[in-house]
Structures are given as C-alpha cells and as structure tokens.
Amino acid sequence: MGDRSPVGRRDALRNRKLLANTAREVFAEQGLDAPLDVIARRAGVGNATLYRHFPTRAALVDEVFRDALTETAAAGERARAAEDAWAGLTQYLRTVFAGLAADRGANDLMTTNLEGVTSLEAIHAHNRETIDELIRRGKEQGTIRPDLTTEDLLFTLAALGRAVPALTTVAPDAWLRPLTLLLDALRTNPATHPLPAPPLTSHQFGKVLLNLGPHKRR
C-alpha cells in the first residue's frame, strides 16, 4: 500500500506537476515522440515514478495539453460568435496556427491522430464543427467560395500545419505568409491586402525543405 500520509500526497502531487511541466518543455522542443526517459531524467525522478503517474504516453499528453486544448476550444467559440463568418474563420485559424508555431508538441497533437488522448478527440470534433459552421455561414454571406468543403480545408490546413516547425526554423512568423495565401484562395473576391511576413529567400526555402519530414524531427 502506498504512503497515504499528507506528506506523501503532497510529494505525489508535486512530482505529478513537475513531470507535466517538464514534459511540456520537452514536447515543445522535440515533439510528442520524445523519449519518456528524457522527461523523467530532466524532472529529476526515476522512470518508475513517471509511469506510476502516467502509465502511457497518451495519459501524459492528455495531462500536458489539457489547458491548451481548452484554449483552442475557446478560440473556436469566439470565432463562431463573430457576426462576419469570414472574419471569424481567419481569426480562428491564425490563433490555432500561432499555437502550432510556438510549440512543436502542440503541432504534433493537432496535426496527427494520437489514440487514447480523450481531450484531443473532443477538440478534433469541436474544430470540425467550428469550421463546418463558419464555411456554411460564409457561403450564405457570399464571402467564401461555394464549392469549398470542410474536407478541402482540413486537408490543406493539415499539410501546412506539418510544415510549420520547418518554417519557424528560418523565421518565427514565416507561417503567416502561406496561411494568408491559403485563406485568400477560399475567398469569393480577390484579396487586395499585402501578404504578411517577407517571402522566403532561396536559401531559406532550401533550409525549410531540409527540415521537413520525420527524419529531421528533433
């Protein structure tokens, strides 16, 4: 039987919080496939302690990203509340992609399907509902092209999302330019605004290509 004293419970809670915070740092640096023993070692605990609190990788991921997923869901609610569906959609996607650019672990979480993460299953469903509604309303308002489907947008967003970590190796906001180009392709009327962020140089483009793909994961 484990130590059920107040001191033992405090130690357990402290270790759990320490592991979750450390995992967030490691996942942000290396992605969700980072070795779990690296997390335990950086937190200063043994592997047994890590697995006692989080028996599976999915359980650890669920704990680490619960707040981030809640924030993404809240961004979706704000977007759906916007009177202008186009404004809501662009605001929502920029918020989501800013999160993907800032955190490699969050990028993995949102652009792959990791089984057993219950909060992720909920956010994927919420994300689809948000995009479904905004596309439908945008078509009704005449701001989104009538032949666009939710699957069209989700596919292109997933492809761009996987490129975001490579793009941020050359400039923190390099993802803004391709996202804006993608969004402009959804409009019924041609965009007249300038593109944000400077274009990639040929050297930067080469660096991005070299950093694409699972063989370059850090």
Automatic annotation (TrEMBL):
Protein name: TetR family transcriptional regulator
Coiled coil: none
Organism: Streptomyces spiralis
Record GO terms (molecular function): DNA-binding transcription factor activity; transcription cis-regulatory region binding
UniProt domain HTH tetR-type: residue ranges: 13-72
Methyltransferase as UniProt keyword: no
Claim: Transmembrane helix is one of the keywords in the record: no
Keywords: DNA-binding, Transcription, Transcription regulation
DNA-binding region: 35-54
